[in-house]
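User: What would this chain look like folded?
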Amino acid sequence: MRIKLTVNGKIREVDAAPRILLVDLLRDSGYLSVHQGCDEGRCGACTVILDGNAVKSCLVLGVQADGSSILTSEGLASQKGFHPLQKAFSDCLAVQCGYCTPGLLMTSYDLLSRSSELDGATVREAISGNICRCTGYSYIVEAILMASKAKAGGEDRSGGPSVP
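Assistant: Here's the prediction, encoded as structure tokens.
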């Protein structure tokens, strides 16, 4: 099937087999930050923003996304630099092997779009569907809280999608 998607603000038309998963469709289209982990929706490595909601793209058929808008972690940065979430993850050393990072970024982006006041417990609950085998999550939580404070202070100067 020929489907039309808007990925990171760019309209794309792609051929999609009826049973291809969105994670595979995105990766085959060059969006390599969308990682494939468990294929069961448990690890969160494939999380993207689909029409404004965080979804695990291993649980969505590509054809179900026809006409949709998708944001991947590649779409967070802009020509002006890193998105505040990306910068916070870097500043707080919340990245180790990096495999889970894109999914955590997208889950965090979704969280920040829905919540204005965050605490550690709220953040930990929100990211509970994202598995990181390298960290104890403390630096990740710290980074998300830092990005939340940047949002509250209006510090998004990236030029990319604003901190929601």
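Residues 94 and 140 are 5 Å apart (CA to CA). If you want, I can go into more detail on any region.
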